[in-house]
Description:
Layout: H1 2-29, H2 31-36, H3 41-47, E1 55-57, E2 60-67, E3 74-77, H4 85-88, E4 91-92, E5 96-97, H5 99-103, H6 105-108, H7 116-124, E6 132-135, H8 139-149, E7 154-159, E8 166-172, H9 185-197, H10 206-209, H11 219-228, E9 236-238, E10 242-244, E11 251-253, E12 267-269, H12 270-276, H13 279-289, H14 291-300, E13 320-321, E14 324-325, H15 332-338, H16 349-360, E15 364-365, E16 371-375, E17 381-384, E18 391-392, H17 396-412, E19 426-432, E20 442-449, E21 452-458, H18 470-492
Parallel strand pairs: 1-6
Antiparallel strand pairs: 1-2, 2-3, 4-5, 6-16, 7-8, 7-21, 9-12, 10-11, 13-14, 15-18, 16-17, 19-20, 20-21
Amino acid sequence: MNRSIRRVALTLGLAFLALLVQLNYTQVFASKRYAEHPANRRLLVKEYSTQRGDVIAGGEVIARSVPTDDRLKYLREYPLDALMSEISGYYSLVYGGAGLERAYNSYLTGNKPARVESIVDQLLGRDRKGNSLLLTMDMELQRIAAEKLGRQRGAVAAIDPQTGAVLALFSNPTYNPNALSSHNTGAIRRSWDFYQNDPSNPLLSRSFQERYPPGSTFKILVAAAALENGIKPTDTFPNPTALPLPLTNRTLGNFGGGACRGGSGGRISMAQGLRVSCNTTFAQIGMQIGADKLVAQAEKLGMQKPPVFDLPATASCIRTAPRGCAEPTLDEPQTALSSIGQFDVRVTPLQMARLVAAVANGGMLVRPHLVREVQDYTGAILETIAPPAEGQAFSAGTAATLKAMMIDVVQNGTGRPVRVPGIEIGGKTGTAETGAEGKPPHSWFVAFAPGISVAVIVENGGDLGDEATGGRVAGPIAKAMIEALSRRGAESG
């Protein structure tokens, strides 16, 4: 009997000890994590007594809090509906926050930066007023991106090539954040289920969270690596109708078949290869410089790791793994295919905008950013945000040579549909095989012009399908944005 009592006592003692440990862990060590978790409903109810700050882009309010008559006091509204949803995100009673609503929650609720007024409001039980975010976005360019992309699936990313300030980020399909931010929990859940079950995944921000094969736009990076390693634009390479791949019985062909235009005596220069987007030329260049130097150049341009950004952004990879980037080891055939933006190379549109920006700005890798200023409810500036560049991705000389080569692509090569008289535009087209049977390739166009670096992808050729090229489908979207920015500059000048 005594032995049984001792066992029961020991069991109860261990149970009480485990409970004590769990309580201490929850209340001491994990309390902050639980309290700040975006799905913590008690936290959200408490936060709804705060008038969250506005989110403002180009003078337009894209997120605001309005008073209500219910216990939550304020309702979060998004006046532009889906136009800015991947930037603003949503502020949901049921599902927490996303986008800037989550990333800058402590600012929008007035908890950061710490201010005496906020502390006094808390002590006196007064409703607090949060801080407002002023964004770098150019709303005219954002609307052009949305209008020109239309119903086609794809994404647009545009940044200032000198500062990294984001000018436009738009993806299609997208969603309406108002459907997730009401005070009707049943309606919120129905909208959430609708978006979650949509196979097109409208909650995914394609401009900085989706990775695509870059196709021939990746030849810009290969050309940069070549120039950095002693290859000149005038250096020539064999111009075969198809290039045998080492160690295999496969060959690599060119778009449309045959040898590339502009060669002479069975050879073609690197500059001409970029002008006409010659696959066999850049496969040879990639193999000549080697995988290690190609990977090193990609890493200098910010690949193989997620970019530092206001919002969670996906890494662009030389070799892609399900949850990130794989070790970028490449044999010769893999190097050849990677050099034309195929094999396992996957990039986001935001990454390609950064690449083109480096060409335009003298070789610096800029850090993209959305928020330029934080203000309190009186309009006083609390913080100004202007992150520095991340370093020299390639030399100024390489940047100048690449810039001239990309301008030539627009003036005389595959980028001619984007030419605009009086505007210096450099660009590169891309047609990227997806590997999905029966699906047309993606269409890319990346470009720079005064004040803008832009990347556009239209999935599966958009409205033109198999007949699409980057110049015909993605190019006009970039062109419209460049023209609008140039026209505004001319009017203000």
